[in-house]
Write a structure and sequence with these properties.
The protein is mainly beta. It has two domains: 206 residues, Cathepsin D, subunit A, domain 1 (Beta Barrel); 165 residues, Beta Barrel (Cathepsin D, subunit A, domain 1).
Length: 398
């Protein structure tokens, strides 16, 4: 494979990593669920498990650069695999009849075969309620809001059933989604996200553990609490201008022993300066601060730099990521997350690159899913905490 081909693949991965940010959508009226915001220890037990007979969960699979969640929709249940996206709100899937759809290998959901499917009606017009989602790379999904039964598994052995679940039935979809996926499931703080529609008894608590091999699980409620030896927790922030996102506050990044503070840079904040996003592949930082991190890596690496026009990644002639320094993310509250080299670097046919993308100051900083690989990540909006626990994710539920 030529160097140009390798770099083109890397560029395509970057484009994919941008897919699940910067979304816009219309939504029906009347769906709000208030989250309970209170501080408490992240290892607490939630009080409702025995009453509900278990915690919901779903199986997940790795697909090139994204992680897919298996769930069922309709009556009888029809299985779909959708991208796990903490950076968006809506669950949508490609639906028949599909006027313009991307190539999907598995059969598409056919609403006419579900006895519980019902299109939503907009209150003002009493017509079908349309939606339009536009993503950062120009990909989009257009269709109608509908309700149907959504089913996932539960630790009790009994299925967790959500009747009249609001989702998007996509009849016009285009973009860079893999043929292995049926759509996207939004897990942000919005009222129509999967976690919100589960009900406030679950406090929006969920966790996942991503691995580039084998299958894994995403857990909700009591079974999703991340605690124990090795766990570090940081503050979760919410912002009114982008209310659905999970914001973290990055205080500094260490490149080996060289700690690079955000203090003194425009990137510095005390109320959240980056989002954690399972739908983005790479980690993104604003240009100025990002350049400081890259310069620190450059001063460490003893290898020949590879420069390719129009490609921003830091790359070297090497067949090993061991040439790179260890990266540590220092989040607020003393949460020092030491990353493995594969979290921040990749190698292909003699070219080793740092998988850090520098963006302009107007773009959101993103903690992407590659950096989260082999880390048990727990979201706890009720305690305003996100927790990380280094874990062999492929062996966690084997």
């Amino acid at each position: 494979m030529s160097l140009a081909t390798i770099m083109m693949l890397l560029v395509l991965q970057i484009i994919t990593s941008l897919l699940f940010t910067a979304t816009a959508s219309s939504s029906p009226n009347g769906f709000t669920i208030d989250l309970i915001h209170r501080r408490s220890n992240s290892s607490r037990r939630l009080p409702y498990t025995d009453q509900l007979g278990g915690s919901p969960y779903a199986n997940t699979v790795f697909d090139n650069t994204q992680y897919l969640m298996k769930l069922q929709i309709g009556t009888p249940p029809f299985e779909i695999e959708v991208v796990i996206d903490t950076g968006s709100e809506i669950l949508w899937t490609q639906c028949l009849p599909c006027l313009n759809c991307y190539n999907q290998l598995a059969p598409m959901f056919d609403p006419s075969k579900s006895s519980t499917y019902k299109e939503k009606r907009c209150k003002k017009s009493d017509q079908s309620c349309p939606y339009e989602l536009i993503y950062g790379d120009g990909s989009y999904s257009k269709g109608v809001f509908a309700t149907d039964t959504v089913t996932i598994q539960s630790t009790s052995g009994k299925a967790f059933v959500m009747p009249e679940f609001t989702f998007g039935c996509g009849h016009n979809n285009s973009g860079t989604l893999s043929p292995n996926t049926s759509g996207i499931v939004g897990l942000d703080l919005g009222a129509l996200s999967l976690t919100s529609q589960m009900g406030e008894k679950y406090y929006g608590v969920f966790s996942y553990c991503f691995s580039a091999k084998g299958s894994s699980k995403i857990n909700f409620g009591d079974n999703a609490i991340v605690s124990g030896a090795g766990t570090v927790s940081t503050d979760l922030f919410m912002k009114t201008e982008k209310p659905g996102y999970y914001y973290l506050n990055l205080d500094a990044i260490s490149v080996g022993a060289n700690r690079i503070e955000t203090l003194g840079t425009p990137f510095h904040a005390s109320d959240g300066n980056m989002i954690i996003d399972s739908g983005s592949t790479y980690t993104h930082l604003p240009q100025g601060y990002c350049n400081q991190v890259k310069e620190a890596v450059e001063s460490f690496v003893q290898a020949d730099r590879v420069t390719v026009p129009d490609v921003q990644l830091l790359c070297y002639n090497s067949d090993s990521i061991e040439i790179f320094p260890v990266i540590t993310m220092h989040f607020s509250g003393g949460a020092d997350l030491v990353l493995e080299r594969y979290n921040m670097y990749g190698v292909s046919r003699g070219v080793a690159c740092m998988t850090l993308v520098c963006g302009d100051p107007t773009q959101l900083a993103i903690f992407g899913n590659r950096a989260q690989n082999n880390i048990l990540v727990g979201y706890d909006p009720s305690s305003l905490l996100v927790s990380f626990k280094p874990t062999d994710c492929s062996a966690l539920w084997s």
